[in-house]
Each structure stands twice: as structure tokens, then as C-alpha cells.
What we know:
alpha+beta; Butyryl-Coa Dehydrogenase, subunit A, domain 1; Butyryl-CoA Dehydrogenase, subunit A, domain 2; Butyryl-CoA Dehydrogenase, subunit A, domain 3; 3 domains; four-stranded antiparallel beta sheet; 7 strands; binds flavin-adenine dinucleotide
Amino acid sequence: MASTPQQEHLRGLARDFVKRHIPLSLAREIDREDRYPYELLEAFGATGLWGVNIPETYGGMGLFSVDAMPIYEELSRGMPTLAWVIGNIMLYGNDIINSNGSQEQKERFLPLLAQGKLHFSFALTEPNAGSDAANVACKAVPADGGYRITGEKMFITGAGVSDWVVTLTRTAPSRHGGLTSFLVDTRSPGYSAKPLHKLGYHGSNTCAVHYDQVLVPAELILGGESALNQGWQQMVNLLNSERLALSACALGIGQAALEATIAYAREHYQPAAQRDQYQAVRHTIVEMATELEAARRLAYHAADLVRAGADCLRETSMSKLYCTETAKGIALRGLELLGAAGGTFEFDLQRYLRDVLVLTIGGGTSQIQKNIIAKTLGL
Ligand SMILES: Cc1cc2nc3c(=O)[nH]c(=O)nc-3n(C[C@H](O)[C@H](O)[C@H](O)COP(=O)(O)OP(=O)(O)OC[C@H]3O[C@@H](n4cnc5c(N)ncnc54)[C@H](O)[C@@H]3O)c2cc1C
């Protein structure tokens, strides 16, 4: 139900990394300058944590993707953007190759990913394919001994800085059965990515991507040539891990927002003169802490089910829904408790709120999670 001793060991390593490398001033600076945290990704290599969900034969730790949840939680508590960027690579580099790659692809990419030497992104979303993910129109057509990809992708994390972008394309008319993922080298002629300015997760390099006849050899179909038109199933294989990674990111933001609120309340409301008001403040903070604990239990319970190989679509969707919405509520109430100060850049509640608002959208919105849960309830 709670995290395992092994997960707690990983949590300790991540917490130590945050303590040593991410002073609050740096988290604020990266948010203010909206710059990709290259130096932190480099430093993260020394923890050995890049390879958590990569088999030992390829230089990793051989654990499940969900075992990385405490790492995302702690990184997110220190700097939400860093957790999002690292989680993105560990899911859409490590996990996507390990779960779906051909033998050659595993041998080529996993050892480098385990050392943090390659950065991957995943490009599914398009101007007309977000919640309706199967509506992908970016097309790949056979040409010149491989495939040429032409089309647009939107809101792709890290697409302007990654080495490879796993790109979901349309290769046949069948809605779900006509999709294929390609491993696209971002140095390929015809590939371009333009960063977008957005509310939260500054520094995560969210991009609009343009593919203009980008040539990709057939052997770089994810899973090899035999995996043509299997892109949908490959993506579905990763969704439970993605929902739980984002749950953990939300828990980290919720924890940071709770701690920031408690620190402010102790200083500003605790003195005897404020006692009447303090009772209301205390109760609000207690509710925030209780909801966060319930969210954490739900997320780690769902992780146990994933690890056991159970059918747990409902639980992982509930976790994504509840953790992100709970963290949003905590950041908002914390900001309100600070009064006008909460909206200033002197305090971090506004940053936590801006980041968490994005979390209820990315990886399937709250409404989409509700649709999934409703189906599992027979509705
Ligand atoms: C910071 C950030 C990073 C991202 N990174 C990536 C990435 O790396 N790769 C990638 O492929 N994508 C990425 N995304 C895209 C993300 O997955 C999509 O934004 C998300 O799936 C929603 O799609 P949309 O934005 O097109 O919204 P839409 O699908 O247009 O939805 C708009 C609104 O309508 C609601 N809605 C839509 N359909 C339904 C329905 N059937 N029932 C009820 N309500 C519905 C939605 O909940 C939402 O409120 C990222 C998004 C963000 C914000």
C-alpha cells in the first residue's frame, strides 16, 4: 500500500540530490528565465538514477517504471520542471524502448539512456489530436528505402533539445490500427521545433514541431519493421506508468505547496494576537495535509497493482485524476491563505499553482480520466 523499502532508498537519493543541487533560488531562476535545466540533467547522472527502469543487462537497475515514483515526487518537490523533464525521458526513452523496441534498438539506445547520455521526447499530440489521440494525421509514407514523415505535432516536451523524438504517425486509414511510431533523429533534415511560452512548467521546452518530408529508415520503426501499424498498442502499454508518473509529480508539488503554506502560517498567524484567525487557518492546512496523504496512498496502491501485473486502468486513472486535482486544490488554498503575498513572486505558491494547472491537462485531462473511470464502472 505504501512505498516499498527499495522505493524509499531511491527517495533518499533523489532528496539528497535536490538538497545539494536545487536551492530555491535556482528553481525560481529557471522559472523566471524559462530555460532548460541542462546543468541539473548533467548533475543527475552522478546519482545513477537514470537507469532505474532499464534492465541490468543494459546498465540499469532492472526495476519497474513505477518504482521511480518517489524520485519524481522528490524532484517535483524541489523543482517541478525537473521532475517533468526527467520523467519524460525515463518514460519515453527508457520505458518505450524497453517495452516496445527491437533487440537492435534496445542494444543501441538503452545503455546510453541508462547513463543519461541521450534525451528522448514523445510526439503524439497534434492541433486536432489531443484528447482524441487516435485522430493523428501526421503521416509517414514509404519512400527512398524508408518512410517520409510530414505533418505537425503540438505541445511536445523537450522536442527542441532532445536527441530523438518518438513520433506517432498515420501509416494506414484504420483509426487505431493504422498508427506507427518512428524513432526520429532530431538532426534529420526537415525536422524543426519551436518552443511555446506557457503558464507553468517553464524550462521544459514544450514545442510545436514541424516535419517536412523527414526521412526515417524502416529499421527505426519502434519495434522494427514488423511493428508497422502497431503504434497505438505500443502507446497504450505505457499509459499506466505515465498516469502514475504524473501522479507522483503532483504529489511533489502538493507537498511543496503544503510546506510553503505551513512555513508562512507559523510566521504570520501563530503569534497570540492572531489566534482567532489561526484556528481557521490551521483547519484548512489540516485538510490539505489529509487530502495529500489520501492521494499518496491511492497512487502507491495503484503502483502496487501495476507491479503485480493486475488489470488496474481504473486505479491508475483515479490516481492521475485525484492526485493532480488534489495538488491543484492545495496550491490554490495555500496561495489564498497567504493573501496578497501569495500572488507575488516573493513566494512560491503562484509557481506551484501555475505548474500544477498544467498537470491536470498533460497525459490525459481530468475529464478524460473521468471518462475512463466511468467506463470501468459500466457507465
Ligand atoms: C506542458 C504540457 C506538455 C505536454 N507534453 C506533451 C508531450 O510531450 N507529447 C505529447 O504528445 N503531448 C504533450 N502534451 C499534450 C497533452 O497530452 C494534451 O494537451 C492533452 O492530451 C489534451 O489535449 P488538448 O490540449 O488538445 O485538449 P483537447 O483535447 O482539445 O481538450 C480541450 C478540453 O476539452 C475536454 N475534452 C476533450 N474531449 C473530451 C471528452 N471526450 N469528454 C470530456 N471532455 C473532453 C478536455 O478535457 C479539455 O478540457 C503536453 C501538454 C502540456 C500542457
